[in-house]
Amino acid sequence: MLIPATRYSDCEGALAFLKKVIGMEELAVHRDEAGVIQHVEMKMGDSLFMFGPEAETPFARYMTAPRDTGGRETTTMYVIVKDVETHNAKAMAAGATIILPLEERPHGGLQYSLRDPEGHVWTIGTYDPRG
Fold first, then answer.
1. What PANTHER family does the annotation carry (predicted)?
2. pTM attached to this predicted model
3. pLDDT beyond 90 at 74
4. How many CA atoms lie within 13 A of 113 on its CB side?
C-alpha cells in the first residue's frame, strides 16, 4: 500500500478544503492537549492520504512547501472521480484556484488541476490506469 503524505501550515484549513473541495472523508484527526492538529488521516474510495503540521522535526529538512519553491512541486496528487464535470463545477463554486482547465487527455480521460490553499497541486480526473 502507498499512502501519500504532506504538511500544511494551516491544518484546520487544509482539512476543511480537502473535505469540501476534493471530497475526501475524514478518518482520524489526532490533536495535542491544546486541540492543535498533529496528524490527519483521510480517504477517498480505497485510497488514503495523511498530513500533519509544518514543524521543526528531524524529517523537516527533507520537506518543503510550494510557497518556498515558487509554487513548484516534485509530486502531485491525482484523484479519480466518476463525474469530473460536476466535481470541477463544485470546486470552482467553492473558490478553488483552477490552474489547468477541464480537458480531454491524449492517454484517455477528462481532467483538471487545482491548487489547494497552500499551493499543493491536485489533478482530478476520470482516467483510471487500472482499467
1. BNAUNNG04460D PROTEIN-RELATED, VOC DOMAIN-CONTAINING PROTEIN
2. 0.90
3. no
4. 11
